[in-house]
């Protein structure tokens, strides 16, 4: 299975807690003003990478705590990324995802994204809003974005914040 990516960064310490493999997916339609990754927007850009190659990168790095799937908009590739996340979880690592969609928007199309959501531990939701940007925010760009404990939020059907 192929995943369309813009870039993959090994040993990232800025894309979530601990040491992470950061997968920047290609394609985003949110057009947030002030986006830091405009090169990820073009749906026809980027390059396809075999899921097995990403898993091999993870296997070769014993220091990793987890992977972060960001973008771009990961939920444009829900099906492919649910397979990747499932394999990562089997390795005992955690999965963090950044999306431009809000939790409420994702819940409105839950059937489409269910298999991916069920493999995610931590979700940072919502578009980047430059007027709400602060350098004091950990792991998010603007204060409208929330760091969500996905397992608990799905279980209790209400947003539960992830405790960092
Ligand atoms: S969702 Fe992320 S990648 Fe897409 S435009 Fe907004 S900040 Fe940029």
UniProtKB/TrEMBL annotation:
SUPFAM superfamilies (UniProt xref): Radical SAM enzymes (SSF102114), UDP-glucose/GDP-mannose dehydrogenase C-terminal domain (SSF52413)
Cofactor: [4Fe-4S] cluster
UniProt superkingdom: Bacteria
Assigned EC number: 1.97.1.-
InterPro entries registered for this protein in UniProt: Aldolase_TIM, NrdG, Organic_radical-activating, Radical_activat_CS, rSAM, rSAM_sf, UDP-Glc/GDP-Man_DH_C_sf
Broad class of enzyme this protein falls into: oxidoreductase
Gene3D superfamilies in alphabetical order: Aldolase class I
Keywords, sorted A to Z: 4Fe-4S, Iron, Iron-sulfur, Metal-binding, Oxidoreductase, S-adenosyl-L-methionine
Record's protein name: Anaerobic ribonucleoside-triphosphate reductase-activating protein
């Amino acid at each position: 299975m192929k995943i369309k990516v813009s870039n993959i960064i090994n040993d990232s310490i800025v894309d979530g807690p601990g040491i992470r493999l950061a997968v920047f997916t290609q394609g985003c339609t949110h057009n947030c003003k002030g986006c830091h990754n405009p090169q990820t927007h073009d749906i026809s850009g980027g390059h396809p990478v075999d899921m097995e190659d990403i898993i091999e990168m993870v296997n070769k790095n014993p220091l990793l705590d987890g992977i972060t799937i960001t973008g771009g908009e990961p939920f444009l590739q829900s099906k492919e990324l649910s397979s990747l996340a499932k394999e990562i979880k089997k390795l005992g690592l955690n999965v963090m995802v950044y999306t431009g969609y809000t939790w409420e928007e994702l819940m409105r199309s839950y059937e489409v994204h269910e298999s991916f959501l069920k493999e995610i531990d931590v979700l940072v939701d919502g578009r980047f809003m430059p007027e709400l940007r602060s350098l004091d925010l950990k792991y998010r760009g603007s204060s409208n974005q929330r760091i969500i404990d996905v397992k608990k939020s799905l279980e209790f059907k209400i947003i539960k914040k992830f405790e960092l």
